[in-house]
Amino acid sequence: MPTINRRAQPALLIMEQITVNLKERSYPIYIGRNNLDMTGELIKAKGFKGKAACITNPLVGRLYADRVLSSLGRAGFEAYRIDIPDGEEYKNLEWVSYLYDKLIEYKMERLSPIVAIGGGVIGDIAGFVAATYLRGVPYIQIPTTLLAQVDSSIGGKTGVNHANGKNLIGAFYQPKMVIIDADALKTLELRDIKAGLAEVVKYGIIRDSNFFSFLEQNYGGMVALGESLLYAIKMSCMIKAGVVEEDERESGLRAILNFGHTFGHAIEAVTGYKELRHGEAVAIGMVAATRLSLKLGLCSKDVCRRVEGLISNIGLPVQMSDISPSIMRRPSCDELLKTMDIDKKVIGGKIKFVLVEDIGRMVFKAIGSAEFPLDLAGI
Fold this sequence. Notes:
Rossmann fold, 12 helices, globular, 8-stranded mixed beta sheet
């Protein structure tokens, strides 16, 4: 089980620490407010020194990179900043190669840490670069979006997209630490806060009915960045850490974290990763997976009602028609099925779906596209 400690820092800064227990690959998740200025000392305390490369994008870099770079400098690091464009469409091998070039230019060594400052795209591509540059260098996650704080920064999944699908190229590679500053969320658009809450809702559905009930009662405060959101971040990190501890490389249980993602990734792929936020696609995907569960007689109508109700109350789309046609086109059924057929979760020609029996209880079911029982035109 993940362990939790409260850690007092200078200037009365209080951070909670959750430890992801993976033996020699264990690492801390620091959760607090206004804690980016501690980055250098936290990394130094891990025994790293010398050079550090901060990978970010221009928008996030303008907001937070200087603070992180200054903190690294005070801790004695020779720190560099490397920017890549903002957007899922840039999470590809072309930009991986660019990052390799910059690391070689700066003469980064095997013990030189990479620091990922940004959302899921930055964390995924920086983690993949860290996993493969010099056959593996340490990296630190500093997630600045809600979605990255509660999900993608934890667990060691790194990767980039291919034209035929999302995250088809990647590696399992754990960070050395995750530093979560909840105050960073104040600069996000409301749309991005809501998109991040989709992953928070996922944790309640797959693992904790009490947490799901908490979300039903407190979603308004979370959207408004109240203290209930800090609690939701901590709970999400604990649930994710617990699942990763039991199944680090997704040989069994960890696959429940893919709930809603088979549909969601397909929607993202066929729309070019441009029109929808990842969390919005996952929200639609979770509703689709719950409707599929109902169609197969696995869950009750009440479960379906609660899942759709919470997602809708947060202000997230529950189906494609909730997205304005001026923002995106609706993919055809054939496009979605063809994309799901080359998903990483396809085994023996069948798609492995994560489905719902009840809030907090999931089941896996393999379904071939030819026998698919749900009308995807309704997504």
